[in-house]
Amino acid sequence: MKIDLDDVVHIKETSMTIRGSRRRTTVPSDVVKALSLKDGDKMRWVLMKDGRIIITKVK
């Protein structure tokens, strides 16, 4: 995967815990602040054929 670092605002590796039926994921606090995420906001997950995942805030 090629990334143009001029387009990058934040990079961080996190752990994901999948438990029970809710399958919760932790979003890094810097991302929460940058996107002004609040409880109940929706995110769109797009899985690409090459294994990349693109996550965006739904407006």
Description of the structure:
- The termini are far apart.
- This protein has one domain (5-57): Pemi-like Protein 1, Chain: D, CATH 2.10.260.
- The chain has a two-stranded antiparallel ribbon with strand order 1-2.
- By secondary structure, it is of the alpha+beta class.
- The chain has one helix at 29-35; strands at 43-47, 53-57.
- It has one helix and two strands.
- The radius of gyration is 13 Å and the shape is globular.
Short recap of the structure:
This protein is of the alpha+beta class and 59 residues long. The protein is built from one helix and two strands, in the order αββ.
Rounded to the nearest angstrom, the distance between the terminal CA atoms is 27 Å
Structural class based on helices, strands and sheet pairing: alpha+beta
Shape: globular
Please name the CATH topology: Pemi-like Protein 1, Chain: D
Text of the CATH class: Mainly Beta
Specify Rg, calculated over alpha carbons: 13 Å
